[in-house]
Amino acid sequence: MRRRDALKGGLVLLATSTLASIYKPAYSKTLVGGSGAWKAQPPPPLSVVDSSRLVYLTQDEAKLVGTVFDVLIPADELGMGATEAGCVTFLDHQLAGPFGSAAKDYKLGPVVEGTPQQGPQSIATPAEIYRKGLAELNTVTRKKFDKAFPDLSEDQKVAFLEGMEAGTIQFETVKAKDFFTLLLQNVREGYLADPMYGGNRDMVGWKLVGFPGAVYDYRDWIVSKRGKKIDVQPVSLLRTT
Amino acid sequence: MHYKRPKADVVIVGLGWAGSTMAEELTRAGLNVVAIERGAWRDTSTSFPTTRNPDELSGSIRKDILQAPVTETYTVRNRPGETALPLRKYHNLTLGNNVGGAGTHWAGASWRWQSFDHQPYSRVMERYGAKQLVDGLILQDWGASYHDLEPFYDRFEKIAGTSGTAGVINGVKQPGGNPFEDSRTSPYPTPALERTRANILFSEATTRMGYSPFPVPSAMIGGPYTNALGINLAPCTYCGYCQLYGCGNWSKSSPNICILPVLMQRPNFTVVTESEVVRINTTADKKMATGVTFVDSDGNIGEQPADIVITATFTLDNTRLLLLSGISTPYDVNTGQGVVGRAFTFQTLSWAFMFFENEYLNPFMNTGALATQIDDFNGDNFDHTGLGFIGGAGIQSLCNQGLPIGMSGLVPEGSPRWGKGWKKAFQKSYQNYAQIQGQGTNFAHREQFMDLDPTYKDRFGQPLLRITYDYNENDRRSGRFIRDKCVEIAKEMGAREIKGVSLADDPYSGYTPWDSSHVQGGVVMGEDPRTSVQNRYQQNWDVPNLFVIGASSFPNNAGYNPTVAVGATTLWTAKAIKDLYLKNPGPLVRL
Amino acid sequence: MTRNLFQRALRISFHSGFMLSLAALPVNVVHAQNAPVNARMEHGRYLAVAGDCLACHTAADGKPFAGGLDLKTPFGIITTSNITSDKETGIGNWTFQQFDDAVRHGKGPNGHLYPAMPYTAYSQITDADIADLWEYIRTLPPVNHKVESNKLPFPYNIRTLLVFWNLLFFKDAAFVPDNSKSAEINRGAYLVQSLGHCGTCHTPKNALGGDTKDTFQGASLQGWFAPDLTNNAHTGLGQWTADDIVTYLRSGTNRYTAASGPMTEAIVNSTQHLTDADLQAIAAYFKSLPPRTVSPPQPLPASNAQVTAGQRDFMVECSACHRSSGAGISNMIPDLRNNPAVKAQNPDSLLNIVLKGTEGPATLANPTGAAMPGFGWKLQDEQIANVLTYIRNSWGNAAPALSAADVSKARAAINAQPAVPR
After folding, report:
1. What are the mean pLDDT values of chain C's consecutive 10-residue runs (422 residues total)?
2. Residues C70 and C126 in one domain
3. Any keyword Amino-acid biosynthesis (chain B) (predicted)?
4. Is C61 in CB contact (< 8 Å) with chain A?
């Protein structure tokens, strides 16, 4: 659209703006030089996830994965644990989106296992892996300890997750080791991503390491703070905490 | 629906660095140029605003800016005889998915390659003889020397606004620069960036060891600059959102910032976006290209006729496009005959990862290419006699990483990866982690090549490109040699814990952490049609109105990043088209 | 086949002055029009560019000069007319006299024109220029495009009411040179007051849309403040040299600032294409104007709570481009220090730019086009009020504080996005 914020004749004029056109999906375009500024479709505004309800996980799944997350990132003197920091909310929203559906992956067949260096060949999505993996988690611990995972002692929980990580504990419906890798990846993401995604409450993860957050200019510090401790309250993109 | 667009003088496939640089030259010469780009239009102010850019999750982690494997991917195997399988998830080759290509999200290391890198065969024969080459190694000159390319390196730097400290100007060594660089005619357009604490520790250590540290030339602009096309660039802010991000404040050179604003002003330039070229069309005798066929995002099939066809897609896709179009002879690994897909190279990386005891390295203050380097062991800057390999690496203290998710796994070996122990270790290592990268040469081998996959197809049903690659013995030897140098420097820097790695010690994988995204070759330029697809002007030996530009033309990889060499060879070819080809269309090199 | 490419390249590059024609023509006219065939038509084309006729007489995505752009006025919508040579829907049947009546005297075939057509300024066009303009306009290729021009509500739809408006506010008189000033200043005055119609935006208006006597002292127009063009150093062009003005009108930027809002379009469509002599004349005229007499206020103290809070947000949101010192980047990112636009009494433009962002001027002389992103979706009213209060009272600036209520009002007035909920 050509912009016409024209002001003429002592009468005041305002551009006709078609707001509806702003966020429509991109499509093939032919742009010719000299025909005015070429502008991309602006990306939609960032937003804060709604933590008041679950969008993919069931209540039971959310509770269970929270128990696992709190073993991976527990509360201690350095800061709150994963669940309190919102990592389950984070995961829930990630699984409901393109990450959960592995929307970017190549999924055409044939699907066969190759060498380790050929990389993951499974076309199971993270959302599917969580659904199956969480269902099987309690089944396996019941077989092994006669208890659901949340009812294990702290030491048992740690030992069990170590077994998943090392590949000594096997699941039937998913690869326990891969599931563990996904759990660890996602809990770290939730603890350290911008709080607008639902985790990193009060920017706890950023405060843990001294990361200043959504800052786009360090020119004043690159020399003056070289090698020095920087005490700064981090900022998030939408100033959420 | 099928449709045919009006004929153009020139069609350019892909509007990344190579395509937009070429488009600028040819539209300025008055030609009517149509570019066809698979990705969408992106402009700095609208698409990468500072208001939303500093977001690690969508950038480095989910890689939203990259072209997704669902759109197109590659199959990979380590050696002939194995079954290649597709790279199903995001992998180490980081393709662009927008106008600007990978040049929008690149890290920004902005190197001129050395004389040696353009004429490796002559130099090795002259200094060591054939005995220096391991079995099966492919080594050949480009047909264009550093001397030929220098004016074009110079011009490209002045388009990009490259920051750096010159090492040699008109034969005279300059303080603080790279003493090994080949002579330049002018200094870098903008001054080198400030150094980090880790850079300084590296610089001090290597100086004590007798080496010559210097700032790595960078796309991050060192001060306000008006480029050769009249576009203004702003100084870098050290925000650290470079690699896998578009720069929001006009301070990382990219086609979007440095070239496209000028093309947008020219009525003889057109870009068709979100349209994927699937074939180069030729006359029945395959002696002339007639244009290209593309599929637009609505699924319509379009044709763009043109007098000159230039493909400037991602390196690997240049090879794929020739194979899909049946142009020139595909390489046959069994006979060693054929040229398309031959002389494929990667990069040989070595690392020293280190942890200090009590530093505040403030890793978040960085850029994609904030590095201090020594070139004492790069290319042929040292005597290889008795070492059993050729090449080497630029060894650099690289400060390109400070975002917390990406660093969450960077704790010393043996530290817990989760639990309270991890929190404690991560808190400490975040401020104490540093790295030395040995970015090494990589040489082609007769069993490293590309062809069309017999099984896997893209979304249009066309075969995927198949990569057959593993490191060869030359690269394994150079990788270990460089790794040991990295470790020695790390020790001298005073690090507490150090781990040295040569990635070439393990089989090649598209998913190796810390690995390179650089691939070269497949449509190489050269002096002999039996070993090259194109002549020294990147003009196809068989189809004289077809020019395939980019790192696909390079028969070897240097211990450097390829972008500026791509820019220089593109400008060199543009001049040949303007000054030679247009006056006398036909082969520019006759044998 | 390809041999003729070189000849074509040569022909375009040199024989018809490819780069030269790019520099001289408004780019969106290049394709639309046949090249003028004689000197008077060429001069008429230049005058049409100087008057920026195309901007209003072309709809979004419409054919050039075929009209149909809706101009939103406080009195209702006026749709611009088709001025191509189409006999049915354009002005193909017009005589020169009819053209002159419309452009210089505000009289159309159906009665009085609304002063959305700036005939109040165009009345000063010389006889020779209006004749040349007609030579060009009458050759515009016909486009059959019917436009219903008057969608105003009662009583503004009664054209005869304009008789009274014209009596009050329209001085139907030719430009009279001031013989006490140089020829250059008079040439500048002519361009500014007639074709350039600068006062249309920059001169304050009364309640009925007529010019007040405070010529070029700055005016607020639907969400933008067209700044003071007098030589006042605090609010106007006092700091700028004549060269700064020329550079600005040629490239959209200069060492102090970059154009924003509607001025960007005026530069891109019109002023960048004027000759050096004409731009110099315009600059000389503005530099000859007496400064507006206002004295600067005192800045708020750095300890002011809004200033302190604003500084924090400025460092996070703004410093990446404008730098922590506010100095910006020459010819690209405005210098906020001691900047008349920043300390304008009327903050409309500042609010508009921060809430909605503004496209950067992309011209042949400076194609960069660095834009400012909109912050309306991101920052709350209070944050924006604080940031603006901070920049309006730092680095030599001094201007009244803004409140969250001011921002809220502006948001509604210019239809900016609400801040995302959090």
Report:
1. 46 35 37 63 94 88 88 78 93 93 88 81 93 94 86 68 70 86 96 92 82 86 89 90 98 96 93 97 95 84 95 95 96 94 92 95 94 95 98 95 97 94 86
2. yes
3. no
4. yes
